[in-house]
Amino acid sequence: MTQEHLVLFTPSGRRGWFETGTPILTAARKLGVDLDSVCGGRGICSKCQITPSFGDFSKHGVTVAKGALSEWNSVEQRYKDKRGLVDGRRLGCQATVQGDIVIDVPPESQVHKQVVRKRAEVIDITVNPSIRLYYVEVEEPDMHNPSGDLERLVDALEKQWQLKGVQADFNILLQMQQVLRKGEWKVTCAVHHADGETNPQIIHLWSGLYEGTIYGVAVDVGSTTIAADLCDLTSGEVLGSASAMNPQIRFGEDLMSRVSLRHDE
Ligand code: FES
Predict the structure, then answer these.
(1) Ligand 1 lined by 89 (C-beta under 6 Å)
(2) Which of the listed residues 46, 160, 188 should we mutate to test ligand 1's pocket, taking the one with most ligand atoms within 8 A of CB?
(3) Which CATH architecture has domain 4-109?
(4) CATH fold match for the domains 4-109 and 129-203
(5) Overall pTM surpassing 0.70 (yes/no)
(6) Does the domain formed by 129-203 have CATH 1.10.8.60?
(7) In 3-state terms, the chain is what percent helix, strand and coil (to 5)?
């Protein structure tokens, strides 16, 4: 008979019961815990890092034994050798539940991480970018099942990431054939999700797993000043800021004078 174990996530406090062998990433997804993943659990992106805790947690009514997670595996070792992994950290897609366990999700593994900006006048924000990265493995073309590259890529995004109705414009189509073949049918897609109304759009492709970051610019056009912040969309960090006076100011300090400005003036 399969046994179920308590999995408790901090700092969210979410908990649930899972069968022996359930990957921590799967448990997190089922409970709606904010645990990042770009590679979809293939052990290559390291976004899903977690810190397991062992011992007595009387506050939560749980005792965690040494073997509460599966043993360190070769995928984790390969990642640690290649890129380094802080001691005590595990990959959430590789470590599986073997007993009651308490799992901490560090800030850098949270998709909607809280960012506290240093300047006193700005508030905490939750990073929720409209552009995200998704790594997929696309089926190779098959004479017996003829379909286009875009069709198979869209299909992979739906099956592997539950993204429905993904579209791509002509510029993406032009590069798609080459990018897919260069990456041996493995590709990272930058997908733009507009708020609800339009379908998600592929806006860029990289062969294989893209390990860099993506940037966005937030622009605030005010009546007096125009400001722009360059942000790292994965960490939420503001990398640079610039501002200038709004040049419309010479047509009047108040908005009404500008709105009423005649074209021939
Ligand atoms: S989800 Fe990518 S390494 Fe675990």
Answers:
(1) no
(2) 46
(3) Roll (3.10)
(4) yes
(5) no
(6) no
(7) 25, 30, 45
